[in-house]
Amino acid sequence: MIEKKNIVVIIPAFNEENSVGNVLKDIPKDLVSEVIVVNNNSNDNTKLNAQKGGATVLDEKRQGYGYACLKGIAHVKEKIHKPDIVIFIDADYSDHPQEMTDLVKPIIEQDYDMVIGSRALGNRERGSMTPQQVFGNKLATSLMKFLYGIQYTDLGPFRAIKFEKLLELEMRDTTYGWTVEMQLKAAKKKMKVTEVPVNYRKRIGFSKISGTVKGTVMAGYKIITTIFKYI
Q: Residue 23: CA atoms inside 13 Å, Cβ hemisphere, count?
């Protein structure tokens, strides 16, 4: 049994009506105090299904993963009782929400500032990541090691961070560079960061990024330019 902390979950969601309910159902209810789903301009029943699942639902009309995350953070900043830890997870049900306990344990028990859920260290279901995703992830983490001297194995979106440290990062990216910006800034600020293995399965539905050539190219370009931006 890990020490009880005030933990909030932020879930960016764009057209994930078939999966967001599963994510909400599997989140350990005794672990978190609030789950926030940021409906990122969906044109399906994502918002309705998130509400049915008991989440606090926010609307962010500006399209972009980073925009959705920033909306969630802004909401949390307004709370009287600020959380100790914020967890980010996608709404597509590719990650296993039950593993949130493993994600926050190094923060609570070993005073880490941030924990990345690494798909590279865990078990990936066959077909859960496209070849271009695997290659891009490897290229990005290799560049980060070469240019910054920091060792990451993944840029996976499933992660936990102390809320006070999240605010210190002054996150800015509004689209695909969100995860790499967070990891680079944490390294430059000498934060105590670790990775834990997480399992990864085929997502429910169609990926708006890796499922299209345009999305893959745009995401890859943004990640690489973000890596060079913070040298």
A: 30
State the number of CA atoms in the 13 A half-sphere of 94 facing the CB: 26
What's the token pair of residue 194? 């670790």
Mean pLDDT for 202-220 is 68
The token duo for 231 is 């040298």
Across 5-9, 31-35, 92-96, 221-225, least confident range: 221-225
| Structural domains of the chain sorted by starting position, each given as residue range(s) with its CATH number in brackets | 7-229 (3.90.550.10)
Q: How far apart are CA 54 and CA 34, in angstroms?
A: 9
Instruction: Identify the band that residue 215 occupies on the pLDDT scale cut at 50, 70 and 90.
Output: low
Residue 56 exposed, middle or buried by CB count within 10 Å (0-12, 13-18, 19+): middle
Q: Decide: pTM greater than 0.70.
A: yes
> What integer is the mean pLDDT of 115-134?
92
* Mean of pLDDT values over 148-174: 96
Mean per-residue pLDDT, 100-115: 98
**Farthest CA pair distance, the chain:** 46
